[in-house]
Amino acid sequence: MNIKQIRAYLMVCSLVVVLQPLQGLAQQNSGASSAGLQHTPTERDGQHDFDFEIGTWKTHLRRLVHPLTGSTTWVELEGTTVVRKVWNGRANLIELEADGPEGHFEGLNLRLYNPQSHQWSLNFANSNDGTLSQPTVGEFKNGRGEFYDQETLNGRAIFVRFVISDITASSCRFEQAFSDDGGKTWEVNWIATDTRLTNESEASRTSLQPAATGGQHDFDFEVGSWKIHLSHACQRRRPFVLRQTRRRCFLFDSLQPPHMVIESWKEESMSDVVYVSKSRIVRRQGPLRIAHLPGESQPVIYGVHGGIAEHYKVDPAKLTESHSSTIDYVISATAG
Fold first, then answer.
1. Buried b vs exposed e over 54-83: b needs ≥16 C-beta within 10 Å?
2. pLDDT tens for each residue of 235-270
3. Helix, strand, coil percentages, rounded to 5, for the chain
4. What domains appear along the chain, each with residue ranges and CATH number?
5. Inter-CA distances, 103 with 7, 73, 77, 97, 301, Å
């Protein structure tokens, strides 16, 4: 064996020695990866997490008056909570009414389940302002629900934690806490203990009755079950607008190119439909529209004219045609 052959032999042996540990390491990593894939836990389906709470509850509430100020002044309220299931459990609506030294309190909470993230969002509203607050988001683990969000209090960013615990068939506990140090410490400022009302007559006596003030009953006419036929344009840009007169309603979609549908109906009572009327609106050019009205053989062209062009932010100099008929006339014709 000459020197070249010896050198080649030694190089082959070295490669074998080096590659054997690498091969073992690769097999080990492959096995670890397979084991990791096999033991990946599946996400739990939590869409019925709040089913335990459906019903009517007696609520005892304690609230810290001035959180994160060093104050230790608490007020206590007594009230009623009604929880209703929505979407077969994937959402629920909570109404809370309570009374205490500070007066009457009304709150509402809309809870929504996200099947993609397997988390709940809790959206609270106070009747004093009628707006939904920043939602707290979280989930249940081992019978305990924890939900978090970030808000602003007195100009400072804080963390909010909402906890649901001590859940039994007849009682549960709710606790809210704030943190102004990034979650290192928490100050509890809201504690509610609910006890289920099992007696139907007692639950009926404590049912929530809204006060008759302001415009908060504008949609009372719609309370109940309705059969709905819905149609919409593929390119919807604005929401439906509902206008109501005495026993007469119009539902129309405003400014929807290339067309929109106007519907109206009149009722002698909340269950008897007298007639249904439909009009089809087609966009012609610019602000001009062609309205095909029920019972009319010829369409009506409408748009804007010089007197109202400025109101609709249309340059009168650019109007190729001027028509006295406007959308108001078309709605009136549709409504009969």
1. eebbbbebbbbeebeeeeeeeeebebbbbb
2. 444 444 444 444 445 555 444 444 455 555 554 444
3. 20, 40, 40
4. 51-205 (2.40.128.20), 220-335 (no CATH)
5. 97, 16, 9, 11, 57
